[in-house]
Structure formats: structure tokens, C-alpha cells
Amino acid sequence: MTKAKIKAVGSNELQTVEVNIKTNTIFMNDNAIHASDLQLFNPINGTVFGTLLNYKGELELLGGAVHEKPYQSPPIAPVLYIKPANTFNHFGAEILMPTGMDKLKIGAALGLVIGKRASEIDEATAMDYIAGYTIVNDVSVPHESIFRPAVQHNARDGFCSMGPWIIDYHEVEDPDDLTIRVFINEKLQQENSTSNLIRPISRLLADVTEFMTLSPGDVLLVGVPEHAPLAYVEDTIRIEIEGIGSLENIVVAEMDIGRRNVI
């Protein structure tokens, strides 16, 4: 069993429980309940920051373009963007396909949940600032340029599913070596590992907090691997991260407002 924190719909407080990350079940009152049989709220209260170009393959895909306009050179500091509160979504909820569009990019990301105020920290102590880990589906509308990430592509309602829980930091032995898999309609569409990060977690935290403060409850995404798969209306998505569990959602048409379930 693994110690985790969940937030049930209708509650503002995190509840500590034991979970089975392989079966995605939660143990409550001596009962094993599958995450899909509970109404789980998004477990995050703070700001969610995404990181671009932190996977080696993602940067390699840019090739020589990284030395041309508008980029001019490879990034010398973390490239961040924000997933605002309107994007927050949860396990089992629907992801809305915007009217006039036919596909979405699925961004599988490990989320670092900050446990205490982090400002100008160093790599040696960086892990002490992590309260736990969660799975994030950093959804976006497919677009070519990543220079100055466009709000209209990244910040639509429900475009940041998180959960189903926060795994306590001490339950994950090596977050810099976790396998990440994306399944669409039960077919494996992407597989990568946090071992391929350009900035490992400690360095990423140190570099980010050099110029900004992270507060308790904030979430820092370590990045999205290259070749993010595409999803279409009625597709069921499952993101699995080793040691964390799995996050499931379904894509529905925005015009189908009767099925809307974004929180």
C-alpha cells in the first residue's frame, strides 16, 4: 500500500488514505474502492506551472530551428507557462473538444506538489520542498510554435486534469526515473521516462526558484515528452506514471453541454 492524499467532491480538505497504485484503488473504512467509483475532486489548491523543452527528445525535435527566429538559441533557463484555475479538471471528468476543432494534444506530465515556500533553493536541498507527486494531463490545442505559449491553445476550460491523488514524497524512491505511458482507447500511444529530463527535478526546482517563489500547494510540471499523442471526440485517455498511479479522462464535444463535467 502507498500513502496518498485525496480530495472528495464537496470537501475543501485533503484526506490521507492508502492506495494501490497498480489497481487505482483507495482503501477507506476497510473497503477497497476503485478511483472511478468515487467522486474525486482535483487535489490541487495552488498555481500550476508548466515547463517547456525539458525533455531531451523535445528539444532535439526543434533541430536547427532552435538557433533561428524566434528562438535564436536553446533556452538557458526554464521556459515556464501557467495553467490557470479555469483549466483545472479531475480524474474521470470530461475534457471538452472546442467547437470547430477535431483533435487535442495530450500532455502527460509528472506534477511536483510544493510543500513549503521555495525561494532561491539549491539542488542539494531541493527535494525537501516537495510534498508529493501527482499525474497531470496538460491538454492543449495542437500548434507548431512554442515561442511565447498562446493562452488560447493552453488555457481553455478543463485543459489541466490532475490526480487522482497526491502520492507522498517519501513513497517515490527516484522521481528522476519514472516510466510514463499514455493509452488512448486502451492502446499504448506514448512511452517515455523522467530519466530523459534535461533538468532533473532538483535542478529544475533550483533554477525555477532562482527567479520566482513557489508556495505550498503550487504544482510544477517537469515537462511533457516529445511526440505527444492526439485525442479525438469519444477517446478515453489514461496516463500512467510509475509509482504514482493512473489518470483517466474522456474527450467529448464542447457543444454537448449536457455531458459537461469540468471542475
TrEMBL record:
One of its GO terms (molecular function) is metal ion binding. Keywords: Isomerase, Metal-binding. SUPFAM superfamilies: FAH. This is Homoprotocatechuate catabolism bifunctional isomerase/decarboxylase. The lineage of its organism: Bacteria, Bacillati, Bacillota, Bacilli, Bacillales. Residues 47-252 form the Fumarylacetoacetase-like C-terminal domain. InterPro entries: Fumarylacetoacetase-like_C, Fumarylacetoacetase_C_sf, HPA_isomer/decarb_N. The gene is hpcE_2.
